[in-house]
Specification:
heterodimer; A: about 190 residues; alpha+beta; six-stranded antiparallel β-sheet; four-stranded mixed β-sheet; about 25% strand; globular; B: five-stranded antiparallel β-sheet; 6 helices; about 30% helix
Chain lengths: ~190, ~180
Amino acid sequence: MRLLLGSIYTFVVAAGIGLGSTWFALTHGAGFGTLRVGAWTAQPKAGTTDIDPYSRAVIARSGALPVSLGDGVAFRAARDDQGEPLDGRCEVTISGTTPPARYFTLTLYDPDGRLVANSLNRHGFTSEELYRNQDGSFQIAVAPRARAGNWLPTGGVDRYVLVLRFYDTSVGVATRAEREAPMPSIKRTGACR
Amino acid sequence: MTRWLLWTLAGIILGGIVHLATILLLPRTASQDAYERLTPITPVNVMTPIPGPTPAKALLPFMDPAFAMAVCRYDLGHGPMKLTAPVSQAYTSVTFYTKLGVAYYGINDRAAGRRTIELYLMTTAQHDAMPEDEDVTAADRLIIESPGTTGLIVLRALSPEPSLMPMAQAAVAAARCLQSQ
């Protein structure tokens, strides 16, 4: 009886820890070889055959196809520079410069990777579409309501993620520091609706 | 008391094994991975344009809406494949994925050179079986070895502005993947 109770207890503990940690790793992302620059994270190895088992499980579960390293690198941000989650009811400004690349695209998704409906049907910018300052830097207002200049509508969703993809770029597995990959800042600049 | 501590310890160790096993087995059991999602709309060995993502409908999550995309769901069971793709005005890339979604090779128009991208895809066995002299003439053609017999070739063409999307779509629609023998 004691053995039975003990075994049941052991299995419950094992299932709880095992499945719980798997769920946590898949939803929160386990960072092997993660490149962090400011609020942005990228996993250049996820686009190669050196992809770690966690990223492998994440892509299999989500159905996404990772950007291959021969194509480019994708940076993702779910929080701003202060660590606050990105909230579509607030105004956030993305400003600065980007690492060298032939093209880049910025896209706004809901946390599941779907585009967010908005009146303008705009879901992002390519590097060619941005209005820039004279020195080549830029500001993008990510806000629920229209703004002058580069406005990326949020559609007023609770949570969103930004993905900044660089195509034909020198950023890769060997990139370590911000100096090599200067990423734009993400700062809350306006009140929340 | 010690007995329960031991049971707990056993549970934690077993939990670790469960964790590793589920992470490693998940890709093989996932029923909603990219290959499965693409299967209903992509015939085998035919380059098929994929509709771009919209808020209401997207075939795959996290698709880049600035790109036109076409997919060739390949099966090398009957021999090697040849991919030809015209280079679009802005930026074109080709990525090869295994059936489980691992990107094993990617190349862009600048690296592939020329006005059209021409790539040969074959398994290691098919590559080894190529006649010696053919391998010499093959020096200037780009041969890619697929880790398995099935997988995905994904062609992407950038539309730098929304108004250029029809041109990007025309470029990927003109791509072909064909049995090369």
